[in-house]
C-alpha cells in the first residue's frame, strides 16, 4: 500500500507540473482542498476511484498514467485487450473492478448469465448491475482494448452495394455480446482507425451517447494534431436533465477539448423554438439573448464542419448503464398516439420515421422539440457532401434506425457490427 501511494504521488506531481498547475489550482478544479492534493503527492493519503476519474479528466491522462498497475494481456480470437486493476485501492473499489474484469473475461468466452450464477464472485452482482460493472472497468482504464478484428467480407459487400459509404468498418463482434462490450469495441475502432485519419480539420461535430463518450475517452491526447480544430455539439437537452451530462454532446466536446489541449470548443445551449423549429429570442438582453448569441457561434461552426460522429437509439431504449435519456420519456406518449410502428428510431434527439422525418403527429413533434435542441438535419446532409459523417452503432435493435440514417443521407461512413451490416445487406428496408 505504501509503495502504491508513493508511486501515485510521484506520477501525480509530474503530471500536475507538466500542465503548469499549482496544487491549489488543481484542488480548485477537483473541488477538494489543497491539503488533499498535498497528501496525495506526499504519499500520506490514497485517492478514491471518483477522484482518480476527475484527475484523469483535468490532467488529460488515462488511469494507467497515474496508477501503478499489474498488467496482463489477453486475447479471445476476435479481441485483444490489456487488463489490470491498480493495487492499493480501498477494498470495496478493488473488489468492484476485479469483478468487472472477471465478468468481461466470462463474456468473451461466450458464457451466459446462467454461468454467472454459478460463479462465487459474480453471483453477488445482479444481472442489471453487470452493465455498470463493465462500464466501470472500461472507464477506469482497468480494461483496454488494443486490437479488434474487422469483418472484411461484410465490409467489401457493403462497399460494393453502397459505394458512397466506402470505406466501411464492420467489427467482428458476436451477437451474444452485451451492448456495453459492443459499444467499447465500436468506439475503439473509431478512436484508432478513424479519428487519427482526420488531419487537423477545422470543425468536428459530436452527437450524444455512451459509444461516442467512449470514443472521446479513448482518443489519444495530442498537443498539435488537432491544434486548429473546433469541437462542436450537435444536440443539447433542457437544464432539468443535467444529471445526464456524462453522455451529453456538450460533455463529449469538453472531453475532446481537454484531451487535445490546443483545440477549442463550441458548446450548444438548449433553446426554445417556435412552431417552425426556429430558436426563440425571447427575453431580449436576458439569459435567452445570451443563449441566442452562443447559438450563433455554434451555427457558424456547423456550417464549417467537415466531419461528425453520431449514433442512433431505438424506441424505449435506455443507455448502456441503465439510465434513461430525456427522449425515452416520450416512448409511452408515442405509443399512446398509435404511431410507434412508424418510428424507425432516435437520431440526434429526434424520433424519426424510415424516411428520416419526424412522426406525422403535431403533438409528438411539439413534445419532441421540448426534449432536445439540435442541428438542422439539412445542414448535416451538407456535411456529407463536403466531408464525412460517421455513424457508430451496434446491435440488431438499432439496425432499423441505422438504415434510416443511411437512407436519409444523414451519414456517409459506417462503424458498425455484423448485426447491422447483415440488416443493411438484406435490402428489405
What is this entry, summarized?
By secondary structure, the protein is an alpha/beta fold.
Describe the protein's architecture and organization.
With 429 residues, the chain is an alpha/beta fold. The chain folds into three domains: 2-66, 434 Repressor (Amino-terminal Domain) (Orthogonal Bundle), CATH 1.10.260.40; 72-145, no CATH class; 149-426, Rossmann fold, CATH 3.40.50. It starts with a helix and ends with a helix. The protein is built from 18 helices and 15 strands. Helix 9 packs parallel to helix 18 (418-426), helix 11 (210-218) packs parallel to helix 12 and helix 17 crosses helix 18 (418-426). It has helices at residues 2-18, 23-30, 34-41, 49-59, 63-66, 91-108, 113-117, 130-139, 152-161, 179-194, 210-218, 249-259, 287-304, 331-336, 362-371, 377-386, 399-408, 418-426; strands at 72-75, 79-83, 143-148, 169-171, 203-206, 230-233, 235-236, 264-266, 307-310, 312-313, 345-347, 350-352, 373-374, 388-393, 413-417. The strands form four sheets. A seven-stranded parallel β-sheet has the order 4-15-14-9-5-6-8, sandwiched between helices. Strands 1-2-3 form a three-stranded antiparallel β-sheet.
Cα-to-Cα separation, first versus last residue: 58 Å
Helical coverage, percent range: 40-55%
Mean pLDDT: 83
- Basic shape: globular
The radius of gyration over CA amounts to 22 Å
How many β-strand runs? 15
At CATH level 2, the architecture of the largest domain is: 3-Layer(aba) Sandwich
Feature tags:
434 Repressor (Amino-terminal Domain), seven-stranded parallel sheet, 18 helices, 429 residues, Rossmann fold, globular, alpha/beta, 13% strand, 15 strands, three-stranded antiparallel sheet
Amino acid at each position: 500500500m505504501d509503495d502504491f501511494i508513493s508511486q501515485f504521488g510521484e506520477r501525480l506531481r509530474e503530471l500536475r507540473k507538466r500542465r503548469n498547475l499549482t496544487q491549489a489550482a488543481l484542488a480548485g478544479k477537483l473541488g477538494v482542498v489543497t491539503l488533499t492534493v498535498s497528501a496525495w503527492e506526499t504519499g500520506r493519503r490514497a485517492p478514491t476511484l471518483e477522484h482518480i476519474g476527475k484527475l484523469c479528466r483535468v490532467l488529460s491522462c488515462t488511469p494507467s498514467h497515474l496508477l501503478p498497475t499489474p498488467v496482463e494481456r489477453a486475447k479471445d480470437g476476435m479481441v485483444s485487450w490489456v487488463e489490470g486493476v491498480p493495487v492499493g485501492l480501498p477494498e470495496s473499489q478493488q473488489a468492484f473492478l476485479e469483478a468487472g474484469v472477471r465478468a468481461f473475461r466470462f463474456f468473451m468466452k461466450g458464457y451466459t448469465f446462467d454461468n454467472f450464477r454459478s460463479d462465487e464472485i459474480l453471483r453477488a452482482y445482479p444481472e442489471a448491475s453487470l452493465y455498470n460493472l463493465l462500464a466501470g472497468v472500461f472507464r477506469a482504464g482497468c480494461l483496454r482494448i488494443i486490437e479488434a478484428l474487422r469483418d472484411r467480407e461484410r465490409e467489401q459487400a457493403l462497399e460494393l452495394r453502397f459505394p458512397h459509404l466506402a470505406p466501411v468498418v464492420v467489427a467482428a463482434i458476436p451477437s451474444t455480446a452485451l451492448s456495453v462490450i459492443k459499444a467499447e469495441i465500436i468506439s475503439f475502432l473509431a478512436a484508432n482507425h478513424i479519428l487519427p485519419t482526420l488531419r487537423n480539420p477545422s470543425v468536428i461535430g459530436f452527437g450524444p451517447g455512451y459509444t461516442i463518450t467512449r470514443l472521446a475517452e479513448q482518443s489519444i491526447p495530442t498537443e498539435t494534431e488537432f491544434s486548429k480544430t473546433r469541437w462542436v455539439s450537435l444536440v443539447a437537452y433542457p437544464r432539468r436533465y443535467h444529471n445526464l451530462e456524462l453522455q451529453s454532446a456538450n460533455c463529449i466536446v469538453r472531453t475532446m477539448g481537454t484531451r487535445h489541449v490546443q483545440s477549442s470548443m463550441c458548446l450548444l445551449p438548449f433553446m426554445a423554438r417556435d412552431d417552425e423549429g426556429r430558436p426563440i429570442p425571447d427575453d431580449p438582453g436576458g439569459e435567452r439573448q445570451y443563449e441566442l448569441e452562443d447559438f450563433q457561434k455554434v451555427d457558424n461552426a456547423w456550417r464549417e464542419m467537415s466531419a461528425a460522429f453520431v449514433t442512433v437509439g431505438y424506441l424505449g431504449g435506455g443507455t448502456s448503464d441503465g439510465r434513461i435519456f430525456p427522449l425515452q420519456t416520450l416512448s409511452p406518449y408515442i405509443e399512446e398516439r398509435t404511431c410507434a410502428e412508424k418510428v424507425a428510431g432516435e437520431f440526434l434527439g429526434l424520433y424519426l420515421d424510415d424516411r428520416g422525418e419526424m412522426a406525422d403527429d403535431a403533438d409528438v413533434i411539439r413534445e419532441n422539440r421540448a426534449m432536445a435542441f439540435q442541428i438542422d438535419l439539412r445542414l448535416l446532409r451538407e456535411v456529407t457532401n463536403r466531408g464525412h459523417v460517421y455513424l457508430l452503432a451496434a446491435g440488431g435493435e438499432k439496425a432499423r434506425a441505422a438504415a434510416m440514417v443511411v437512407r436519409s443521407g444523414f451519414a456517409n461512413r459506417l462503424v458498425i457490427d455484423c448485426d447491422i451490416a447483415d440488416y443493411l445487406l438484406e435490402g428489405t428496408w
